[in-house]
Structure formats: C-alpha cells, structure tokens
C-alpha cells in the first residue's frame, strides 16, 4: 500500500447533480425530471443550499416534473 499526497477530494454528489441550485439568481426557475431523479435528494440539496449559501427555493410538482424557483 502506498501513501499519496496532494490528491484533490472529488465533489460530493449533491454538488454535481444539483449544482445549478447554487448558481441560480432570485426569480429564476428550473424544471427537474423527477422520474429519473429522486425527489428526496432534491429536497436534501435544497436544504443544503439554504443552510450553506443562505438561498431559499420553492418547489411545485407539475405533470412534466418538479419546477424549482429561487425565491431568496
């Protein structure tokens, strides 16, 4: 076994799958296909963005998926 230095830590799954949440401006929205993505993961990412970046979101379930609005 060999010890290694200087390797970067990969980004967490919520940082890559829902990275658009952290980039959204107030008033913007995005439609997420909840047939392929877990709604529980989406809610966890929303809570993470609120706690870490002080950004608030509103979600509504629509026939075509879930729409997320940045509200603060």
Task: Report what the structure shows.
- With 72 residues, the protein is of the alpha+beta class.
- The chain has a domain at 26-70.
- Helix content is 35%, strand content 22%.
- It has helices at 13-17, 19-23, 39-53, and strands at 29-32, 57-62, 65-70.
- Strands 1-3-2 form a 3-stranded antiparallel beta sheet, with no helix packed on it.
- A hairpin with a 2-residue loop joins strand 2 and strand 3 (65-70).
Shape: elongated
Number of helices: 3
Structural category: alpha+beta
Gap from first CA to last CA: 49 Å
Our Rg estimate from Cα atoms comes to 15 Å
Mean pLDDT: 82
Uncertain regions spanning at least 5 consecutive residues: none
Biggest sheet strand order reads 1-3-2
Number of strands: 3
Order of helices and strands: HHEHEE
Largest sheet: 3 strands, antiparallel
Portion of residues within helices: 25-40%
Strand content: 15-25%
SSE order and pairing:
Blueprint: H1 13-17, H2 19-23, E1 29-32, H3 39-53, E2 57-62, E3 65-70
Antiparallel strand pairs: 1-3, 2-3
Please give a quick description of this structure.
The chain has 3 helices and 3 strands, in the order ααβαββ. It is of the alpha+beta class. It has a domain at 26-70.
Based on the model shown, name its key terms:
single chain, 72 residues, alpha+beta, three-stranded antiparallel β-sheet, 3 helices
């Amino acid at each position: 076994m060999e010890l290694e230095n200087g390797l970067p830590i990969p980004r967490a799954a919520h940082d890559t799958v829902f990275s658009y949440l952290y980039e959204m401006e107030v008033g913007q929205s995005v439609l997420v296909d909840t047939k392929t993505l877990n709604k529980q993961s989406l809610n966890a990412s929303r809570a993470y963005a609120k706690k870490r970046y002080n950004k608030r979101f509103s979600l509504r379930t629509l026939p075509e998926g879930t729409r997320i609005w940045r509200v603060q």
